[in-house]
Amino acid sequence: MERGFILSSQRSRRHPTPGPFLKWVGGKRQILPALLAHRPTEFKAYHEPFAGGGALFFALQRAGLLSTRRNSLTDVNAELVGTYRAIQDDVEIVIKALEQHRYDKKYFYKVRDWEPNDLDPAEQAARMIFLNRAGFNGLYRVNSKGKFNVPFGSYKNPRICDHENLRAVHHALDGIKIPCESFKRITARAKAGDFVYFDPPYVPVSDTANFVSYAKNGFSMADQEELAETFAKLVNKGVFVLLSNSDTQPVRRMYADFRIETVQASRMVNARSDRRGPVTEVMVIGGYEPTPSS
Ligand SMILES: C[S@@+](CC[C@H](N)C(=O)[O-])C[C@H]1O[C@@H](n2cnc3c(N)ncnc32)[C@H](O)[C@@H]1O
């Protein structure tokens, strides 16, 4: 008994379970059980083209479901991708740089003003993690000049450096391809039998049902249409595809040929407090039958 305990605690110290190291808007922690229940039973490589905080990637890693060396995590946010890469390359120097930061309002604004290009990759990653943990609601927002402009967030004793998780993330990222690229590149990357999870910026939920052709989040309706075409292309190629989006009329129209399941989530960020609360989202499934629940 005792021996078993020692062995398992030693193992967990060496490879503790990894989880998202950033708070990311649209993070999928809440609906993870539903996503996991709707994954393909078996697949070759896993690809997450809108990586963000990578909630499903880490969940699949924890469950021991990622086996090949062809898995990929991609995103168009260069700072985000650089942070993943720095942790993958040498987590100890990222941790060292992160330990220099402290939770203090004046200090936060000083670090926010730093020019990322003057920093080395580990310092850039540490700045990104610090601003994310100490900034308002984990938002990532830049101004027209590309400067991060999220205000300080008031928290009680926030954890800036989670050494154990960062080291676990480092192990989880071993061998993962992490390019900075648009979701469109996935058609070249994914092969038959692979599993792709798309978690794009959502189609906005509108009271009037008049959906504008551009979106504040920088992901337009034309992008949404292109994503739906990419989804269909992948399914035709024999790829297993799962997608999250808002439960809205355009989403249901774009994916009418595929299986659509609804899931309840509560929105973390909404400017209007009366709009916070449970919302329905959809999961679109293409090219496979989900794992039957046991
Ligand atoms: C809803 S978030 C993903 C959240 C993530 N699943 C999680 O668990 O944290 C959407 C992500 O898509 C990225 N993104 C936006 N437009 C993109 C594009 N054209 N191609 C690839 N990624 C894009 C954003 O940078 C953002 O990280």
CATH uppermost class of the largest domain: Alpha Beta
Helix/strand-derived category reads alpha/beta
Give average pLDDT, whole number.
89
Q: Summarize the main sheet.
A: 6 strands, mixed
CATH homologous superfamily classification of the largest domain: Vaccinia Virus protein VP39
Radius of gyration: 20 Å
Question: Total strand count, please?
Answer: 6
CATH fold category name of the largest domain: Rossmann fold
**What's the number of domains?**
2
Q: What coarse outline follows from CA principal-axis ratios?
A: globular
Bound molecules: S-adenosylmethionine
> Portion of residues in helices?
25-40%
Through-space gap between termini: 30 Å
Poorly predicted regions: 1-13, 208-215
Strand order of the largest sheet: 2-1-3-4-6-5
Written as H for each helix and E for each strand, in order along the chain, the element string is: HHEHEHHHHHHEHEHEE
Strand content: 5-15%
Q: Give the number of helices.
A: 11
CATH architecture descriptor name of the largest domain: 3-Layer(aba) Sandwich
Give the arrangement of secondary structure elements.
Layout: H1 2-14, H2 32-37, E1 46-48, H3 55-62, E2 72-73, H4 78-89, H5 91-99, H6 105-113, H7 121-134, H8 163-172, H9 186-189, E3 195-198, H10 221-236, E4 240-246, H11 249-254, E5 259-266, E6 278-286
Parallel strand pairs: 1-2, 1-3, 3-4
Antiparallel strand pairs: 4-6, 5-6
Helix pairs in contact: 4-7, 5-7
The structure holds S-adenosylmethionine (SAM).
Structure description:
36% of the residues lie in helices and 11% in strands. It is of the alpha/beta class and 294 residues long. It has two domains: 18-76 and 181-286, Rossmann fold; 88-172, Adenine-specific Methyltransferase, domain 2. The longest helix is centred in the C-terminal third of the chain and has 16 residues, at 221-236. Mean pLDDT is 89; it is low at 1-13 and 208-215. S-adenosylmethionine (SAM) binds next to loops. S-adenosylmethionine is lined by residues 24, 26-28, 49-50, 52-55, 75-77, 182-183, 199-201, 219.
